[in-house]
Amino acid sequence: MAQKYFRNLPNFDYVNRVKGGDNISDYTEVKNLFKRGKLRDDIFRDLNYFTKYKVVGDERPDEVAYKIYGDENLDWIIMLSNNIMNLESEWPWSQESFDNYLLNKYGSYEKMYETRHYETNQIQDSGKRTIVERGLIVPSDWSITFYDINLGQQITRSSVYPVSNLEYETRIQDSKRNIFILKDIYVGLVIDDMEEFMPYTPGSSQYVSDRLVRGENVRLYQ
Known about the structure:
- The structure is a single chain.
- By secondary structure, this protein is α+β, with helices and mostly antiparallel strands.
- It has helices at 5-8, 41-44, 61-69, 75-81, 87-90, 95-106, 109-112, 165-177, 187-197; strands at 11-15, 27-31, 50-54, 115-120, 123-124, 130-132, 137-138, 144-148, 153-157, 160-164, 178-182, 207-209, 212-214.
- It folds into two domains: 5-93 and 175-221, no CATH class; 122-158, no CATH class.
- It is built from nine helices and 13 strands.
């Protein structure tokens, strides 16, 4: 079983700020969240290392990791592969969370189904050449006039469709479902990189060990 991501993180001795503390030299040992792991650039930028995946339903990163790698503790590889730093905002919500968000934002189901904006349908000339792509945001009364070479005349066309608040928000969530999965054969390489990157190296005045550095206690000098 692979180690969980936070077990790989080294520690940091932080000056104890607990109210009522008697000893100004006390420290509290915490995880150094600022030392964030990442995939090597030669891996992250090369799509040959990855496969595409679509998050299904309410799947969480740990569930995807178990499905793909057989180990839920490798959820951090799922996150790093997609440069996800904030799970709350960058991972698709559960249906319950999504429903609560919509009701909180729009206030009612009626508002959710109101038209947010209009978008174009694809428009082609008589020779099947695309004049306007589908999905451009336009006013409700939008139209376009173009010269159709085959017909030898000017043509005016209007083809738009309404997009509701619900459809707009659903698109955003659906876009988050399309993620990249690091191929299984490269997982060991990434774990080795992480174990090499995380330990501290000697030389800094803050260095205590390869797993611990200590912050400066300015209160000792006041």
